[in-house]
Amino acid sequence: MLIRHAPDLTDNDVTDPGVYLQRRTLMAGLAGLGLAGFAGQANAALTYTKGFSTTEKPTPRKDVTTYNNFYEFGVDKGDPAEKSDRFKPRPWTVRIDGACEAPRTVGIEDLIAGNKLEERIYRMRCVEGWSMVIPWVGFPLKDLLASVKPTSKAKYVAFETVRRPSEMPGQGWNTLDWPYVEGLRIDEAMHPLTLMAVGLYGDVLPNQNGAPLRLVVPWKYGFKGGKSIVRITLTEKPPATAWNKLAPREYGFYANVNPAVDHPRWSQATERRLGEFRRRETLPFNGYGEWVADLYRGMDLKRFY
Ligand code: MTE
Questions:
Q1: Residue 71 beta carbon below 6 angstroms from any ligand 1 atom
Q2: Pocket of ligand 1 contains residue 180 by CB under 6 Å
Q3: Which fold has domain 17-296?
Q4: Which residue's CA is minimally distant from atom 22 of ligand 1?
Q5: CA distance 207 to 87
Q6: Ligand 1 atom closest to the CA of 134, numbered from 1
Q7: How far is the CA of 126 from the centre of ligand 1 (A)?
Q8: For 116, phi and psi rounded to 5 degrees?
Q9: Domain coordinates of the chain in residue numbers?
Q10: Tens-of-pLDDT digits for all 305 residues of the chain?
């Protein structure tokens, strides 16, 4: 992956997180969407889950939505915001199948209406060495997986994202083997921190952030969070993953944030939080070790990177 530096921030870019964090404002944002699902749930179901959300200051919305990795639209950080106008995230369906008793195809509106939406403010650490704090709106992946009744053969979960070269100019290039695919072990997928995001900053997901549905796994490097997902398949064998296929020595299947295991070409000990001048120390499991370290007990994390 290329390493780029964010443009300097001005005072105008900085939104006071207190402003949007007020439940009232969030509700107004959701109700204003005109989406049956989001709006219908706004009063009842959207919760602020303190236990899982960080109290760190969220990265300004402008940075979250203009400094992106989404190679389907190009390799520069500004490409996803600038070149995703033609992308149509609706109508949209997701197929959930594989090792389960009740495979289903579900439309995005039904997914939003049928799940309990929550705001989760998570740190995101990119493998390239930068990080953000993002207020997502979404629901736990485990709820969706439970709805298809996984069988005992379901050991992994494969995520397939959209392939639509007519709307995604970057897919005209062989930067990656399209479509972008990702995967998790079943216990990682069922972990309560693992989120399917449908929004951020109280609004629907912008195209550049993976509309209409993307994965968020906050203790792993950002590339595990596949954007614009069309298929989720329960599998017996570990699924292929996009960056691992391209450069297996640089990008492993696990990709847990780990300051003690460097990328072959750069250190992972520190990170640059967007909007900050000094680099900060990277935390094991991106600071979520208290909840997830047990998943990897006894594993050599240098080998399973
Ligand atoms: N998903 C798809 N489909 N294509 C991509 O290029 N990039 C990944 C991940 N998901 C990517 C993707 C990488 S490298 C990162 S760091 C995050 O998305 C960035 O998410 P953000 O742009 O919303 O911050």
A1: yes
A2: yes
A3: Sulfite Oxidase; Chain A, domain 2 (3.90.420)
A4: 68
A5: 7
A6: 24
A7: 9
A8: -80, 110
A9: 17-296
A10: 543 333 333 333 333 333 333 343 344 445 544 443 455 444 334 444 457 999 999 999 999 999 999 999 999 999 999 999 999 999 999 999 999 999 999 999 999 999 999 999 999 999 999 999 999 999 999 999 999 999 999 999 999 999 999 999 999 999 999 999 999 999 999 999 999 999 999 999 999 999 999 999 999 999 999 999 999 999 999 999 999 999 999 999 999 999 999 999 999 999 999 999 999 999 999 999 999 999 999 999 999 99
Are 226 and 215 in contact by the 8 Å Cβ rule? The answer is yes
- Both tokens of residue 143? 């709820």
Q: Would you say the pTM of this structure is higher than 0.90?
A: no
